[in-house]
Fold:
Amino acid sequence: MLEIDPRQLIRDRNAKGIGGKKNSSSVFIWDGDWDRSRGDLRFGSRYRFISDLDENRADLTRTERFCQYRSRLRSGRPWSSYRDGLVLDSEEKILAYLHTYLGYLDHMATHGFDASLGKDALGVAVTRDGTLLKINRGLHRLAMAQRLGLPSIPVVVRAVHRQWWARVVQGARGETALARIAAALPGCLPAREPGDLDPVRREEAFSWPAPRRQRPTACPSPMRAASWAFCGEERVRASGEGHQEQRDRTAC
Structure:
């Protein structure tokens, strides 16, 4: 596990630039050009979603996501997830759902990043040049930490590029090879530059909001007390169980 500045982790693996091919999550050493195709998380749907909630917290009906879900509701196709037992078949449920994310953001602002609240640890992969790309789950939690300007968050290395592995282990095997990898990982920093196979190039200016000051407290987590629900990466508890899942690409 590594501790990194969330605002430095701005690049993720984007398989669109290499024909949609993804490496297996069951292996640790990845071959191929997966690290040459990257996305920019600063302009991704998760950060836009969290920022929109934060900026319109006084009236969530003004958010882009509320408008999307209300449009589906009015067309007779409310957004739903069979896997999570969720259907947003009223405006009240849409607002409750959005308030859930806002509640998690405010909890993080007060208590800091609590890795135990997420179903999975935030995963990263080491590229051929020894930098870190975001992979796996936890993109909403990362977006919240970035929005708040938290000083650090824990991430878990889920995979490494074969070229980086070979350069670090220098032919060693077994425990010796693993020890060399463990010694090299703390020197791996988040990738800042785009990849040469990126499907989209971002040229527009970007600036983070001022970091929010934390106010430590010994209060128990409201997430556990209130059974907070999260889309996709966190378990959702809501009515509508049994409805056919209809995915909204901007939702999770």
Q: What stands out?
A: Residues 58 and 138 are 26 Å apart (CA to CA). DSSP finds seven helices and nine strands in the chain. Strands lie at 2-4, 11-13, 29-30, 38-40, 80-81, 86-87, 123-126, 132-135, 153-161.
